[in-house]
Description:
single chain; alpha+beta; 2 domains; disordered C terminus
Amino acid sequence: MPAMTVFSRRAWPTVSLALAALLSAPASAATEPGSLQNPLEKSADCRKCHAFANPPEHADVPNVSPIAWAGGMMANAARDPVFWAGVAIAAQDMPGETASCVRCHSPRAFVAGRDDATAIDDLDPDDLAGVDCDLCHRMIDDGVTPLGDAHYTIDDVLGEAGDVPKQGPWSYDGGDKPMHSWVVGDLLGRSEHCGTCHDVTTGRDRLDDDGQPIGAKFNEQRTYSEWLASAYAAEGPDFKSCQDCHMPAVDNVAGCAEFNSQGIVHATGGRRHDLAGANRRMVEILKSLYGSAGSGDIDDAYFDVALAGIDLSLGGAATLEVTAPASVDLQAGIDGWGVKVTNNTGHKLPSGYSEGRVMWLEVTASYMGEPVYGSGRWIAGQGLEGDPQQRTYEAIAVHQQTGATNHLLLNDYWQVDSRIPPKGLQAGIETDPVGDRYAQLPDETWPHWDEVTYAFAPARLVDLTPGQDDLLDLRVRLLYVINTPAYLEFLASENHTNSAGADAQALFPADPDPLVLAEWTASVPLRGLVEEGESSDGTSDGTATSDSTGDAPTTGATTSSTSAASTGPAPTGTTADVTDSATTGGQQGGDDGCGCRQTGPTGGFALLLLALGRRRRARR
């Protein structure tokens, strides 16, 4: 068995200020267009050796071969139709400033001198491989180039096999060697590798509330800096790198098909390569375009691996804890339905590119399948209902002078950033929330949770089962849409250059199917129904009336009693049975940076609901 070098964990500073890094760093040695003497090798060539079926011991998990990368967003960053729709508008706003977009989404095109591409048709076929194998495995830490904005430095020195060595964690000294040159390098396993692209700064000065420059350029994305300033970046029990969540470790794996067939494996250090994030709908679209139902360029199996990885990622992203009323009297309404959302990720939730993205809480109460109360419901053809209690998590950047939104290269002011911080996020102008949603904790970090209490006014409903006990079905869901219909309409209507916006919009349904990050359901005894014919308040018989949104609360929820998470479809019936199940690596608990899933109420309240649920099923 080959020897293996294991990555060490490093303690990092707790606050990241990109501006300070830029001011203090030596001149960049980042690779620029036309500077490589040895071009990047094609990922199609890597596929010849690095695509293989799982060995028997991993038969029940997604494909662990490196080429499983092919179905994910990293591999398809240059195929993403929403990306090109955004580039077209950015090029209209600031001609000549979109090279950094190409630099990140199609490194092969950038280093080959096609950095002026503003449409997918400007690329060569091989450029469509996006962030591919040779880029990541030839990237080195040059010691001088600041992280961010895809300022990667690509190794260009030939090795003993006559090619540029592949960087990685494994040493093959004393054992069977791969067919290509190799070198042990730990950058690939450190979060800085991801930070190369996952902090993005534009050329605009960032402005304060008074329209004055704060002394830094606009911090368009800070996913890496959010991690760096969190508890997960510090040495200790909470430490988790980007790779720990997005490239889960797999024991006893081979690096290539030949080694796999011979049973030559590395005992530790192997990682999955599907690089799961949250953009499930886009992977589905890419599968329809480039899978067997489309051009056939990419095997459906790789898209399926990516989708399975995304489901695991989403299932662990957040935890819901709910303090529900033990029973509901419609004549009194509901006062004190508390919800706490905890961010289990190593960055803000949601993170990354903010335009068109919104996460929110949907809270509903239903009787016999009909809604009685609700907040944060998605209304077909309209979007979020916009009720007074609606709780959204989003970042809205604007061009302050005009108030224009969604113009990436014009944005200079954060109007709001209500996204949930990661655990232990320290104060810093680059990563602070914007607005009054959160208050710093005594240790001067930001809370990695949000709490809200819902209140609903009395309602009048006719009893549909006279003489029998009734239940009110409660549900809380944490939902996420990455490309809202409004954003897609913006991309289509604002593009005066080409059809990229309209083309992207046509790929999405008119009303989105939100991703379910977490879900909680329960059924509680319902009182206060009126009998048919009863008209004590003058309302017509059979009519239900209520103020479904109530007054927006001003205080947070009390100690919560239940938590849940789900990425599957919404339930069709009541939930009374109690189930606990982990979704990621067999882990339990919601504070480990990768998260877990728990379903159903707990404790004495759960036993009460279980009995009620059984009785209800029996009489139906």
